[in-house]
Amino acid sequence: EDKVVQSPLSLVVHEGDTVTLNCSYEVTNFRSLLWYKQEKKAPTFLFMLTSSGIEKKSGRLSSILDKKELFSILNITATQTGDSAIYLCAVNRDDKIIFGKGTRLHILP
Amino acid sequence: ETGVTQTPRHLVMGMTNKKSLKCEQHLGHNAMYWYKQSAKKPLELMFVYNFKEQTENNSVPSRFSPECPNSSHLFLHLHTLQPEDSALYLCASSQESLAGGLSYEQYFGPGTRLTVT
């Protein structure tokens, strides 16, 4: 059975801290792994990862994929209150996409 | 017919044209989605409909207008598009929606390859 597991389910840190969000998966016919940020509206796309060991960066956010160990991490450095959101990990197969339950991140000022 | 179907499979349109993409799901799902897949931002989620109610996505230009008349049908109306809108447009459906961060699966249609000239 295909599954995507994210941890932790929730996380509270202070502004300026660095956080690491985890995503492990068991999916056949893997095509790509995606990270989304969801606030009150529809999720916004962050990263798509297809190859192991290649870090993708966007400002204070970065992500990397390990296809051997079947996991990905999303790092956020120097966190800000605007980073508070649910972070969703999803794995894309040929015919469907499987989402994890998300990590609810709350940044304290 | 089963699964998620999309029509047309290929579409070429000029920047002044008005066209519509159609998606139909036969899975009894309650939520439907439009994705855009291009080289610059692969698999970008555009719109979410849960029980026919749209979740706003302000990042999508107004030249894209979704319509969901019922839980089985989803349209994407296109007008005055730009060449950079050329992409593969994928429709998907799921039993639940993205709201709440539940673990679930979305099933894709085959997509419409759109070229804007």
How would you characterize this protein structure?
The complex is a heterodimer of chains A (109) and B (117). Chain A has strands at 3-7, 10-14, 19-26, 32-38, 44-49, 56-58, 61-66, 71-76, 85-92, 96-99, 103-108. By secondary structure, chain A is mainly beta. In chain A, strands 2, 4, 5, 9, 10 and 11 form a 6-stranded mixed beta sheet that branches. A 5-stranded antiparallel beta sheet of chain A has the order 1-3-8-7-6, with no helix packed on it. In chain A, a hairpin with a 2-residue loop joins strand 6 (56-58) and strand 7. In chain B, the strands form 2 sheets. In chain B, strands 2, 4, 5, 6, 9, 10 and 11 form a 7-stranded mixed beta sheet that branches. In chain B, strands 1-3-8-7 form a 4-stranded antiparallel beta sheet, with no helix packed on it. Residues 99-103 of chain B have low confidence and may be disordered. In chain B, a hairpin with a 6-residue loop joins strand 4 (31-37) and strand 5. Chain B is mainly beta and 117 residues long. Chain B starts with a strand and ends with a strand. Chains A and B meet through strand 4, strand 5, strand 9 and strand 10 of A and strand 5 and strand 10 of B.
Q: Helical amount among residues of chain A, as a percent range? A: under 10%
Oligomer status: heterodimer
Secondary-structure-based class of chain B equals: mainly beta
What is the overall number of helices of chain B?
Answer: 0
Radius of gyration of chain A: 13 Å
* Spans where pLDDT lies below 50 across 5 or more residues of chain B: 99-103
The main pleated sheet of chain B reads as:
7 strands, mixed
Determine the mean pLDDT of chain B: 84
Beta percentage of chain A is over 45%
The succession of helices and strands of chain A, N to C, reads: EEEEEEEEEEE
Q: Which structural class is indicated by helix and strand composition of chain A?
A: mainly beta
- What is the number of strand segments of chain A? 11
Roughly what percent helix of chain B? under 10%
Largest interface (CB within 8 Å) is between: A-B, 25 and 22 residues
Shape of chain A: globular
Q: What is the number of beta strands of chain B?
A: 11
Segments of chain A where pLDDT lies below 50 for 5+ residues?
none
Distance between the termini of chain A: 41 Å
Total helical elements of chain A: 0
Strand content of chain B: over 45%
